[in-house]
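Hi R.,

Here's the chain you asked about this morning:
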Amino acid sequence: MKAKEFIAACHIHSSWSYDGKWSLEALAAEFGRRGYRILMMSEHDRGFTESRLVQYRESCARASSDQILVLPGIEYSDASNTVHVLVWGAVPFLGEGLPTSVVLETVKSKNGVAVLAHPSRRNAWRCFDPTWAGGVVGIELWNRKTDGWAPSQKALQLLKATDAIPFVAMDFHDRQQLFPLSMALDIQTCLTEESILDCLRSRRCYACAFRIQLKQNLLSRVLPILRAAELSRRTLAWFYRYFMNPRA
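And here is the predicted structure, written out as tokens:
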């Protein structure tokens, strides 16, 4: 079968997360309308158990259709809630507050896929241990919720020091995180959970913004524009909160 490109929305939270707002069905419908074929979910580990994970996987299967596949996943946080790792695959629930090294070692032993989330959040990049590099398939270059309208400079530095794939993610909790970031996956068989995981393990994927591949030469040209836009956005948001909505 000839490889086909599928567009994935990454790092998505549903109402299965303690801070998620949307049901799996509502997410599948919304992102399906926007042309996504894969939802790479990443529910917070807080409040999960192994039995809840089984129920969650079943709910993801029910929310999937011929138009969109809802891929179950968990976002693991370390004890200080600084380093977060996104995990997909047939990995049993690992627990809350585990050391990142333990998470990565276990995921690798179970043939799962792990991605380091938002390195700029709480300066998580400072905690990066070079020994983690063999356990992560990707690192989030651009996380809409944390980084806003521009990629993370610290993530770029981590990516240059490893062979991890640049990931882009919305970190979707509510509509305000909707942004045209996506991963393009070259799937060589039918679209299934295992074919997605195999694609990620084989690194047959690339990051896109506005459906344009984020190649290094393109990034170097547009980064100053994106950072200027993000600075303007944050400045306007501050003015709005301070002057127009002081009680917010």
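One quick note: The chain is about 35% helix and 25% strand.

Cheers,
M.
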